[in-house]
Backbone:
């Protein structure tokens, strides 16, 4: 069993790298969707608020897997139609599973992050914002210098969970053809007929990811709250 | 590209035929997941079963459900004792493998929710029951369970929705639930928007229904609580 794992370790490592890349790309996108969504929900603009509400209801109430399929196959249909307008002889265009997958899982977790960020923004002391306005800071300055740094501390515990969800959702992308560790395990199991060992190895790699994220966010939380403790 | 409303409408009856599978998976895993969670919560309080229980929760919360499902469905038959045991008629079926994966996954998450609820019970309550001469069983039945239930219900409601969404993975092991039916229609028609959005509407309706039921139950259980 261990020889087999050793034999496939190179492929597993490559697959792990793919997961790491999807995770990092979708993490950046998740933060963007979350901040946009939370800002829209807190803004006075009724249309923006309605759009953000619809976004969170749909993306939190529908299965992750179904949304991934919708976005992957849907984007292929749309892209093909668009490209055909310019080059009519085109037969089929699609987003790579990597980008479609990263986009899909970031939108899914971004809906959860929207709620987290919304709560965290509300948790920032109103007086801080008023003080910044009194000092003559512009709206973007207030956002980036006052609200964002203080909101992070409040969002961190939930955001750690969101990062774990992101990592675990990367496994779904193997179904639409991303060549990551599930794919490696599929291939390995079909040649050496040791599916248990191969899929268990995948589970342990994911466990490694989620453990690092959980420990990492715990560390960040302690650091972020470092100056908040009055006395020990 | 056009959006074919007629196709969407005609696909609904087919998709609803998959609803039975989705609901069966949900119902079975909901009951057995809760049972597993309660046993795990008890095991966590004992001396010898504590570490196995902690390991179980850590493993099933830290890995993707899809991987757990594949370990069970493709992996377990690798072992001879799995194929020769009395459980083989079940573990051979994708349906029961899916139920097992969903239940174990849900059990781990719910055990963690129960742990959180238990933290909400102050030490004073235990002392009060003791002073009143309640037995351990009566303390559990009259004090711990009602309070923990009320504390856990909102989070548990989210977990039920999450379980419902997880049933969509059933199509990866050939089961024809709502998502499975949707995938097979898309493979024929190649109309992903119409079909997948129709399926999404069914799931959204289920989510809404479950959220309503949970908040009704919350209001009922919390009717004596002061706000």
Residues:
């Amino acid at each position: 069993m261990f020889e087999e794992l050793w034999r496939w370790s190179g492929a597993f490592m490559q697959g792990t790298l793919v997961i790491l890349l999807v995770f990092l790309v979708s993490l950046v996108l998740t933060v963007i969707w979350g901040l946009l969504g939370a800002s829209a929900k807190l803004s006075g603009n009724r249309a923006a608020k309605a759009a953000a509400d619809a976004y969170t209801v749909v993306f939190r109430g529908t299965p992750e897997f179904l949304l991934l399929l919708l976005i992957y196959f849907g984007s292929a249909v749309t892209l093909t139609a668009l490209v055909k307008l310019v080059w009519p002889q085109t037969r089929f265009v699609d987003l790579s599973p990597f980008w479609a997958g990263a986009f899909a899982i970031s939108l899914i977790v971004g809906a959860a992050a929207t709620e987290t960020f919304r709560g965290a923004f509300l948790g920032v002391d109103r007086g801080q914002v008023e003080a910044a306005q009194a000092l003559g800071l512009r709206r973007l300055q207030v956002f980036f210098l006052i609200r964002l740094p203080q909101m992070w501390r409040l969002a961190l515990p939930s955001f750690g969970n969101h990062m774990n969800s992101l990592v675990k959702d990367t496994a779904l992308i193997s179904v639409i053809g991303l060549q990551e560790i599930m794919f490696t395990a599929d291939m390995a199991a079909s040649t050496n007929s040791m599916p248990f060992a191969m899929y268990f190895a995948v589970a342990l790699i994911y466990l490694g990811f989620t453990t690092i994220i959980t420990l990492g966010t715990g560390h960040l939380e302690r650091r972020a709250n470092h100056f908040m403790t009055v006395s020990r | 590209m056009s959006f074919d409303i007629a196709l969407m409408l005609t696909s609904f009856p087919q998709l609803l035929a998959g609803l039975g599978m989705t609901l069966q998976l949900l119902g079975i895993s909901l009951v057995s997941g809760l049972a597993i969670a309660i046993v795990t919560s008890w095991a966590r309080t004992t001396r010898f079963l504590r570490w196995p229980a902690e390991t179980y929760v850590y493993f099933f919360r830290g890995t993707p459900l899809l991987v757990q499902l594949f370990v069970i469905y493709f992996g377990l038959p690798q072992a001879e004792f799995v194929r020769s045991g009395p459980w083989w008629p079940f573990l051979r079926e994708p349906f029961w493998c899916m139920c097992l994966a969903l239940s174990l996954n849900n059990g781990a998450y719910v055990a963690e929710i129960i742990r959180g609820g238990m933290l909400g019970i102050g030490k004073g309550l235990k002392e009060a029951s003791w002073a009143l001469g309640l037995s351990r069983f009566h303390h559990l039945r009259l004090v711990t369970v009602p309070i923990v239930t009320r504390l856990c219900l909102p989070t548990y409601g989210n977990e039920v929705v999450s379980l419902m969404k997880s049933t969509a993975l059933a199509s990866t092991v050939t089961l024809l639930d709502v998502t499975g039916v949707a995938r097979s229609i898309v493979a024929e028609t190649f109309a992903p928007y119409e079909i997948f959005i129709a399926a999404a509407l069914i799931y959204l309706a289920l989510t809404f229904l479950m959220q309503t039921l949970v908040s009704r139950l919350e209001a009922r259980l919390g009717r004596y609580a002061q706000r």
